[in-house]
User: Fold Peptidase A1 domain-containing protein from Triticum aestivum.
Amino acid sequence: MASPLFLCILLVVFGSYLSTISAAGNDKESFVVVSTSSFQTQDVCSTSTSTVMPRPDRAGAVVPLLHRHGPCAKSPSTDKPSSFAEALHRSRVRADYIMSRALRGRGTTTIMEGKVSIPAHLGTSVDSQEYVVTLGLGTPAVEQVLLMDTGSDLSWVQCAPCNSTDCYPQKDPLFDPRKSSTYAPIPCGSDVCKSLQSNHLGNGCSMNDNGTQSQCGYRVQYGGGLKTRGVYSNEALTLAPGEVVKDFHFGCAYKQRGADDKTDGLLGLGGAPQSLPVQTSALYGGSFSYCLPPVSSGTGFLALGAPSNTSGFSFTPMTDFMDDGTSYLVKLTGISVGGKQLRIPRKVFEGGLIVDCGNIISHLPSTPYAKLRSAFRAAMAAYPLIPSDDDDTCYNFTGYSDVTVPKVALTFTGGVTVDLDVPNGVLLDGCLAFTESGSDGYVGFLGNVQMRTLEMLYDARGGGLGFRAGAC
Ligand SMILES: *[C@@H]1O[C@H](CO)[C@@H](O)[C@H](O)[C@H]1NC(C)=O
Ligand SMILES: *[C@@H]1O[C@H](CO)[C@@H](O)[C@H](O)[C@H]1NC(C)=O
Ligand SMILES: *[C@@H]1O[C@H](CO)[C@@H](O)[C@H](O)[C@H]1NC(C)=O
Ligand SMILES: *[C@@H]1O[C@H](CO)[C@@H](O)[C@H](O)[C@H]1NC(C)=O
Assistant:
């Protein structure tokens, strides 16, 4: 099965791990003792070449996948990593965006109740993608640091010329299509351009500078007021040294609003024709996988193409959310905390979970959320809760050198049980990284905190969503 078409982008995993993890206490299997020093943000990007080796059937060059705020990011954020409250807010706005996009044109206005709202005063980017990948664009290739997003399709990069009113400040120089020998705007009448309309991404036509060609306009409107528009274009995309996708369609972005990210653009990994995996499906089969590193100083990977041997994965069926063609939906059937299965009627999970690497925190319907929260609080009763107006579950670990955290496991359709990483797949900033999505039966979200250290395989061959533990 090893085929030359089979591309992988592997990753170097830098060794920044929890300083202490050991089995503990009364139930060795169900609780993990974590050193509180592992909760500190690490400022140094280790350049150690010690790697977690990818599976042997993955050969290829290395493209690291980083945490947006991590020290290994090429353009690390100068801002402090977001607080839990901010993460929660971003996460809710994000959820609202995905929901409203799926409902577009359906004449339905509400499906979620109350929990999700967009404050009008929020002008900053609240679209909460968190992980970046570095790819080469153009000829010669220029490195672009792009946010990874399974919740949208069209990839875009800020392009020169663009002034500070129209483009947000980014760390790297703007991509300049005039300096690339392979850049070409996509003509307006082309099928590629017409296909944008059907995904609500079209934005008419514009003439090039000398008025000789009509170019294809694109436009994406995300949650929280973030917008981008520009010229839909063809360009060479270098995924890894020697691994070049000719004629990659992306948006050369000339007008952005509401963004405060320092990255150069966004990489769309959704299920519609504009996304990277779908555009390259003739080359790599349309499947892709990634592993999000557990801590901000770590590195994970993004790989295009399914591994030939998937014996290390557990698969659950996957569909797209409300036939929106973009979002990936799976179904949760149960939750356990500290080895104890919570008693939750199956029915409340009926809305499913959108698998969204651009969303930080997982959202569950009201009953499973309440049961998870109370079981977690009971298991963590030894530690002081920080009082909060919201119903957050945040702990003050000051004075503790280590903390005993219960394992949390999610079970999906098909009996696939996934142990979340402890503590990084469960706690964010000392807070339980779950929130309520709405009433029982409503759709929820599987956020990127919960995906940490798991290889998530989006199998375009109909295999569904695969999970592989301990992948980065
Ligand atoms: C920025 O560029 C746009 C488009 O070229 C132009 O309309 C706008 O006036 C410019 N703004 C400033 C402050 O130069
Ligand atoms: C007009 O611009 C295009 C690129 O945008 C270029 O290929 C073409 O040669 C130009 N034509 C003239 C007459 O300058
Ligand atoms: C797939 O990998 C597993 C180990 O992960 C190995 O035991 C098995 O033999 C492999 N199967 C094939 C067909 O190579
Ligand atoms: C955490 O606990 C310490 C002492 O135990 C206290 O000084 C500090 O104010 C607490 N912090 C919060 C946010 O409650």
About this structure: The longest strand covers residues 243-257. Confidence is low (pLDDT under 50) at residues 1-26, 42-62, 105-129.
